Amino acid sequence: MPGTPIVGQSPIASNGAVHLSGTGTPEGVITAAPGSTFLQTDSVTDVKGWLRWVKATGTGTTGWVAGPEADTGWRELKADFTPPAGGTLTNFKVRRVGRALYVYVKYFSMAGAVRVDTLTGTLDASFRPIGVAVVPMGNTDGSISKGFGHYEGTVKLNNLTTSTDAQYCNTVFETDAAWPSSLPGSAA
Q1: What does the alpha-carbon distance between residue 181 and residue 31 come to, in Å, rounded to a whole number?
Q2: pLDDT, tens digit (0-9, with 9 covering 90-100), for 107-132
Q3: Domains, in order of start, for the chain
Q4: Phi, psi of 127 (to 5 degrees)
Q5: Which residues on adjacent β-strands are paired with residue 106?
Q6: How confident is the model at residue 1 (pLDDT cuts 50, 70, 90)?
Q7: Measured in Å, how far apart are the chain's first and last C-alpha atoms?
Q8: Strands (E), the chain
Q9: pLDDT of 9-32, one tens digit each?
Q10: Strands 116-119, 154-158: parallel, antiparallel or unpaired by DSSP?
């Protein structure tokens, strides 16, 4: 009958866009027109489930983007990075909500000359800012260090204070990376 919904069916837009649902990611699997949506209904509500995807580009199986409400929750990555000799990495947390990438870093440097400290380790591709990202870091004494920097997975803490104060960074970057297929680090 007209007006009676049929389970599993959806309206079809003039360009062929449809509303779909199922388990697993649609990226590389589901063919649809741009503007189509896909509700991922996996039973686990983490990075792999209950996400709304939008077909942003192309008519093939690629071009699906996780919706803006997709949220990984905070992930602690300090175990994935080794600070330089004399430095202590207390926290390195990331959180991805849609295309927004939240970063929180707390680092203690050793006293001495101003320098660049590179954390040994690589930031997961799904949690990388677009291009080169540098933001100031605050010190416990109220001063500002030159900053937290990221370039192609490498994380640097640049021109830190000569004191042993903690440096903090709490910032938001934009990312255009694909949605993660698994979560790095541990829940924070």
Answers
A1: 19
A2: 876 655 555 667 778 888 899 888 88
A3: 1-67 (no CATH), 75-187 (2.60.40.1830)
A4: -120, 30
A5: 91, 168
A6: very low
A7: 51
A8: 19-22, 37-40, 51-55, 64-66, 75-76, 88-97, 100-108, 116-119, 133-139, 144-151, 154-158, 166-174, 186-187
A9: 666 766 778 888 888 888 899 999
A10: antiparallel
Residue keyed to tokens 């942003």: 56
Neighbour-count burial of 61, counting CB atoms closer than 10 A to its CB (0-12 exposed, 13-18 middle, 19+ buried): middle
Q: How many residues does the chain have?
A: 188
More confident position, 32 or 145: 32
Q: Hunting for tokens 């803006």 — which residue is that?
A: 68
Decide if 152 contacts 184 (C-beta within 8 A): no
Q: Which two tokens stand for residue 90?
A: 């207390």
Report the predicted TM-score, pTM, of the whole model to 2 decimal places: 0.75
Write the CB contacts of 43 (distance below 8 Å, at least 6 apart in sequence): 49
Structure tokens at 85: 């000799």
The DSSP secondary-structure symbol of 57 reads: S
